[in-house]
């Protein structure tokens, strides 16, 4: 005989209860796995932090003082992570390209030069020591931006979109790079020496009688060549992947801007300097410019001193060479008609 209607209902209810119990058990196991993974990650981070603090006692004092002052308490407040804007907006300290953290810098590279990003992540998983500043230098090279430039946006999504558009405009040589192309890259040192990852290349000057040293530097793979002054010939380049690099010989450092100034009066063109933001724009219409562009003169007339002379104040440069070894002191820029990328 078949089951009665009441028996069918009881069987259906029992089956439903078993399904609910089974689902709840699956959720509980998944939560346990997540908690276990979080505990492992926390333990790993604590070990790494302890190792770092042991080798950086002054850094430990700074971090300890910041913690005791409550600088990070807001990160764990209830509901702090429920705000969508808080999840997408970058931290307040991260307002320049050179201040990007390693994960975000790698995310930018994955968007514009995915082969380079995959290669770096592979090396870092194998234990290669690549710090965030070395990664941001690659970002600056690919986008042709100044490392000390402010970010175009503090919102992560807008920043990534801007980087994608900027990459399409600059046509970086690293777009054609791959780990299998010649010369092959197997280590971080191999990548640093790769000819596609450098702004400047030494070349001989056919007009020079002395061919024992290089007579000029070539900008990327362009026709822009800068003649080297005789007093710095034979000096090696400290970091050819930086636009504002130096010629170094012992304790003597000659900035690349010195070479540009020496070639300013020649007929040869000068390279376009990296893009620079004075500050994070408040609106999309904020003007972009290179570091050499001067601020407009004040509209109010200058004040007179006691002797009756006018001493107009010139706007200060937005960049300081003393605080930044990468960027040089700014001089009056050459004619824009002689610049090209």
UniProtKB/TrEMBL annotation:
Keywords: Membrane, Transmembrane, Transmembrane helix. The chain crosses the membrane at residues 99-120. Residues 1-23, 285-341 are annotated as: Disordered. Residues 14-23, 308-322 have a biased composition (Basic and acidic residues). The keyword Transmembrane helix applies. The keyword Membrane applies. This is Uncharacterized protein.
């Amino acid at each position: 005989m078949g089951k009665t209607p009441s028996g069918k209902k009881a069987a259906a209810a029992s089956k439903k209860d078993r399904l609910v119990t089974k689902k709840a058990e699956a959720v509980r196991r998944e939560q346990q796995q997540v908690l276990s993974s979080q505990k492992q990650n926390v333990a790993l981070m604590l070990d790494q932090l302890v190792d770092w603090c042991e080798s950086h006692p002054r850094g430990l004092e700074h971090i300890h003082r910041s913690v005791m002052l409550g600088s990070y308490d807001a990160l764990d407040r209830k509901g702090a992570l429920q705000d969508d804007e808080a999840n997408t907006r970058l931290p307040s300290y991260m307002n320049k390209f050179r201040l990007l953290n390693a994960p975000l810098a790698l995310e930018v590279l994955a968007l514009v030069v995915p082969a380079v990003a995959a290669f770096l992540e592979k090396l870092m998983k194998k234990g290669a020591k690549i710090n965030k500043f070395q990664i941001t230098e690659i970002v600056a090279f690919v986008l042709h931006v100044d490392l000390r430039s402010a970010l175009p946006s503090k919102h992560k999504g807008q920043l990534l979109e801007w980087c994608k558009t900027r990459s399409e405009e600059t046509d970086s040589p690293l777009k054609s790079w791959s780990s299998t192309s010649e010369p092959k890259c197997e280590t971080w040192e191999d990548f640093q020496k790769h000819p596609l990852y450098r702004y400047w290349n030494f070349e001989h000057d056919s007009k020079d009688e002395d061919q024992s040293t290089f007579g000029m530097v070539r900008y990327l793979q362009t026709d822009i060549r800068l003649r080297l002054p005789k007093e710095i010939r034979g000096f090696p380049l400290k970091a050819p992947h930086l636009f504002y690099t130096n010629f170094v010989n012992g304790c003597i450092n000659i900035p690349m801007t010195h070479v540009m100034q020496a070639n300013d009066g020649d007929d040869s063109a000068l390279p376009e300097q990296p893009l620079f933001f004075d500050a994070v724009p408040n609106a999309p219409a904020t003007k972009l410019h290179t570091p050499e562009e001067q601020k407009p003169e004040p509209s109010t007339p200058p004040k007179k001193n006691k002797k009756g002379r006018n001493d107009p104040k010139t706007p200060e440069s937005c960049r300081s060479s003393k605080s930044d070894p990468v960027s040089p002191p700014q001089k009056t820029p050459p004619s824009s008609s002689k610049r090209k990328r």
